[in-house]
Amino acid sequence: MFRILTLLIVSLCTINLFAQEIQLTNWEAYTSMYNVNSLYQDGDKIYTATSGGVYFANLNGSELEQFTNVTGLSRIDARYIVHQKESDKVFVGYSDGVFDIYENGKWKAIYDIENAGFVKANINCILPNNNKLYIAGGFGLVVFDHNENVTIEDVKRFGDLNIGVEARTIKIHDNKIWLATSAGIVYTELDNSLANRDDWKAITPIESFHDADILDIEWVNDSLYATSGDRIYSWNGENLQSVFEYPTKDIFGLDP
């Protein structure tokens, strides 16, 4: 009995000494960053969100910075990434509503959207504009002040559209904010109170049988284009009219 007790004490001491050697700074994460979910280019630098974390790459050299949940990220499955040149901040969004802000070599996690209790908290797009972030997702639209780190507005309903419409992408044009949503395109004046649903106007396809689930929008000069499934639409000032059809494949994004 004495020998068993002695062995147990020695084992516990060994475990305790071993545990003291294991610190967070000693850990490394080995994740796959081949599955790219979002990419943003700013000059010679590429900012990439992947299922295994985030990396920044310099196109003019071999410089590569990688980040995981061990080196500052709050999560590894990054869904969207964007860099704001003016503030030199990087913003990364996740499927649970959390987003990270990278500034001066440090990451900070923001939990406002996750903690709001939205049924669908996924972040689809983040658009920086001055000190504000316009964040689109399953919850609608959230406006966040990234200087003060505080939510300013959240928009759950756009005009006459049903509550629960998902916002896909965001564009700012002609001092208006434009959203591609699961029920068409919506827009309003940027200077309005965005939470006022009555200020929002909706644009849908002219043919009622066409899919109004808009995945992406893009302005080319003063012409607005949108994509949904296998079609590309243009806006004629009132409705969306089909201008291109690709019946064998879905079109997920537009780039001018």
Describe what is shown at a glance.
The chain is mainly β and 256 residues long. The radius of gyration is 23 Å and the shape is globular.
Structure description:
This protein is mainly beta and 256 residues long. The protein has helices spanning 2-21, 112-115; strands at residues 36-42, 45-50, 53-58, 64-67, 80-84, 89-93, 99-103, 106-110, 123-129, 132-137, 140-145, 150-155, 167-173, 176-181, 184-189, 201-203, 216-220, 223-228, 231-235, 240-245. Strands 1-2-3-4 form a four-stranded antiparallel β-sheet, with no helix packed on it. A four-stranded antiparallel β-sheet has the order 5-6-7-8, with no helix packed on it. A hairpin with a 4-residue loop joins strand 19 (231-235) and strand 20. The longest helix has 20 residues, at 2-21.
Produce the secondary structure layout.
Layout (H helix, E strand, L loop, with lengths): L1 H20 L14 E7 L2 E6 L2 E6 L5 E4 L12 E5 L4 E5 L5 E5 L2 E5 L1 H4 L7 E7 L2 E6 L2 E6 L4 E6 L11 E7 L2 E6 L2 E6 L11 E3 L12 E5 L2 E6 L2 E5 L4 E6 L11
Antiparallel strand pairs: 1-2, 2-3, 3-4, 5-6, 6-7, 7-8, 9-10, 10-11, 11-12, 13-14, 14-15, 15-16, 17-18, 18-19, 19-20
Q: Which sequence of strands runs across the widest sheet?
A: 1-2-3-4
Category from helices, strands and their pairing: mainly beta
Q: For the terminal residues, how far apart are their CA atoms?
A: 79 Å
Helical segment count: 2
The Rg value, from CA coordinates, equals 23 Å
Strand tally: 20
> Residue share in helices?
under 10%
Mean pLDDT: 87
The SSE string, one letter per element, is HEEEEEEEEHEEEEEEEEEEEE
Low-confidence stretches: 1-25
Provide the β-strand percentage band: 35-45%
For the report, how would you describe the main beta sheet? 4 strands, antiparallel
**Morphology call:** globular
